Amino acid sequence: MYKTFQSGMLSWSARVGGGMIAVAFIAGCSGGSAMNLAKKQEQAGDYNAAVTSYEQIATTAPGTPEARQAKLAVARIQLSDLKQTEQGVATYRSVVDSDPKSDEGLTAAYQLGLHYFRLEDFDNAATSFQGVINAQPTSETAGNAQLMLAKTYEKAGKLADAEQTYNAFSSLHAENPNAAIALETRAKLLDQLGNKTEAIASRQRIVREFGNTTGAQEVVELAKQGLQAEGAVVPSVLTPETMSDTERAQMRRENIRDRDRPQSTRSAAETVRRANIFGVNADDLMSSMNITTDEQGTMYDAMFSMATVMFLSEQYKDAGALYQRAIELAEEDQDRNGVWENLGPSYQGLASVYKKLGLNQLASQAMSDAMKSNPQLLDQIIDSGLVDYGSGDYERAIEIWQGIAGINPGKDGTIFYNIGLAYKHLKDTPSEVEAFEHAVAANPDDKDALQSLAEVLYYRASQRQRSYLFQDAVEDKGTADSYLEIGMLSAKFGYWVPAQSQFNIGARVAKNEEKLELAAGMNAMKAVAMLQRSPDKPEAAVETLQPALTAFPESYLVRYASAMFAQAKGDKEKAVAEYKKAISLKPRDSEPVRSLASFYLAQGDKAAALATYAAFMEQNPSNDAIRQAHDLLKLETTSQPTGMQ
User: Fold this and answer.
1) Is the dihedral of CA 476, 479, 485, 486 positive or negative?
2) How crowded is the C-beta side of 602, counted as CA atoms within 13 Å?
3) Within-domain flag for 487
4) Are the C-beta atoms of 493 and 444 separated by less than 8 Å?
């Protein structure tokens, strides 16, 4: 990929050297363009003079493509020739900031990603590559960036993210020569992750879709060998004879659409297609299927239905274009017919398409736009998940609800309660427990969620003692321990308002029960919640924490709260020290271990996180949850990237 990009840069340099229109003349330049002069200075190795010339061009024509091209040249020289790393990075960033969607902006962001990738600064590399993808998803540069993003995830040991990114690339850039290679690389990663079923499906797709593609035969043979090694079916190559009825009908529609479109309309249709990031003209697509609007003007209903069908058949770009167009038509018609009942689900469908294509930022933006348009749309989406739930499609219901979690924290209790019920039907007990925990954390007053959590802990998760705490809350017994347990859940999931309330009440109850150390601990946790809610006003939180620390300096809960408090304030050294102190006071409790490991990971220190897990396992070898976290992190740390062929 790097060589490909370099050849692109050489091509760009040749165009510059071939003589662009002069935007300024530099003193001493007789007759030649300013860009030509700068280029000659660069080729002669007079880099400082070249930088001066390029910078004068950028100053003379600010905001123009020529100015951005000149800045690209400056950044390239600063990084590669003058070894002025900070200046080069800053110059590339200035090009991105000037116009992130321009060719130059995309190039600058991509080059930044390559720079960070070489330095093995994978977080910044991923951010840069993702910026290119979000700016112009279907551009050639974005395709290169998506492949490099996948390789970045590989190098960082994030194999699941890498395989999802390769899969997204193969859908978003299906015509790219590297699409088949991306699918085979994805299959290898799935093999490493132990997901044989998906690996087989990925290789079958290679054979089926790329079997007759020029230049892909080597990859196709690799895929066939992989399938044969697993004893899996090697499918037939996709031809008109081997197509399903649905695929054959789609091909006929596309052929008819291209054949029958009048020449006079092709230019306009192409303009619409190019304006859509999916590269699909939704109106044209509906017309090719002989679906037209009726007198009631409900074309958007038909578009929504077809989009859903295409999404389920993995025709993501067609589905995305139809969802997007349905939203546009419905919102135009909103004053006349009111809020369309499928407007929320259409936004949710559009967001799901974006996620399938690796465009998570656009997915979030789609949902944000939906809520700004009409807050009631969230209820529509919740209800659409209930339809799938009622029909037994629990996986789809979970996907819908997870896509809207966190948009409105006031709805999270209901959303995660529904997710918990779906996981119960799927007999996925760990996910069921987490979903009901999340529901209780968001809304501790929800008796149904409390009861469901108590039941799954008692009957299926083998956590009977813990289940009693939630059953006490159901029965309004209000013990200090139950308030502590629920408050810690609210804190764990970041619901600081209910967390503060639970700790506040729990501290009073503990005091009445003459559990003074527990009361101090809950007051300390209350201080954490106060700081999280009002980080710009820490005085009251400090006043709440300090008495607890003074009275019970050897309390596990007080020191754990002190660690969380220090982390929230950005005091890294104190946070680490306090987490370690809490662990020493209660060496069998895994929560501060998880918190400390997560803190290290947030700092990019995987080695320290692994050491934290390992030290805990030495004393608690039977803790399967920590062992699993340790083993997964170790796999991410030691895995070698498969690389593109």
Assistant:
1) positive
2) 12
3) no
4) no
Nearest 10 degrees: Cα torsion 142, 146, 147, 150 = 170
- Within 8 A by CB and 6+ apart from 108, the residues are 68, 71, 72, 75, 92, 93, 95, 96
Element (H, E) at 546: helix 539-551
Of 132, 154, 176, the residue at which a domain comes to its end is: 176
- 117 and 204 both lie in a single domain: no
Q: Are 110 and 141 in contact (CB under 8 A)?
A: yes
Q: What is the pLDDT of residue 246?
A: 52
DSSP of 234-285: -PPP--TTT--HHHHHHHHHHHHHHHHS-HHHHHHHHHHHHHSTTS--HHHH
DSSP 29: -
Identify whether 224 is part of a domain: yes
Check if the beta carbon of residue 54 is closer than 8 Å to that of residue 62.
Answer: no
Note whether 86 and 170 are same-domain residues: yes
pLDDT at 247: 47
Average pLDDT (71-89) is 96
Number of domain units in the chain: 3
130 lies in the same domain as 155: yes
Question: 423-441 b/e with 16+ CB inside 10 Å = b?
Answer: bbeeeebebbbbbbbbbbb
Domain match, 6 and 91 both: yes
Give the domain range for residue 610.
592-645
Q: 466 CB contacts (<8 Å, ≥6 apart)?
A: 457, 485
Helix ranges (DSSP H) in 357-479: 360-373, 377-390, 394-404, 409-425, 429-442, 447-459, 464-474
Query: Can you say whether the dihedral through the CA atoms of 137, 141, 145, 148 is positive or negative?
Result: positive
Q: Is residue 404 part of a domain?
A: no
For the stretch 289-316, pLDDT in tens is 887 655 555 789 999 999 999 999 889 9
d(CA 450, CA 441): 10
Asked if residues 524 and 562 have their Cβ atoms less than 8 Å apart, the reply is yes
Report the C-alpha dihedral over residues 322, 324, 325, 329, rounded to 10 degrees. 130
The reply to whether 181 and 171 lie within a common domain is no
User: Same domain, yes or no, for 47 and 170?
Assistant: yes
User: For residues 128 and 93, is the Cβ–Cβ distance under 8 A?
Assistant: no
Check whether residue 113 and residue 135 sit in a common domain. yes
Average pLDDT, integer, range 443-448: 98
Q: How many angstroms separate the CA atoms of 161 and 159, rounded? A: 5
pLDDT single digits (tens) 222-273: 999 999 999 999 999 876 555 455 544 554 444 434 444 444 434 444 444 4
Neighbours of 581 (CB within 10 A): 18
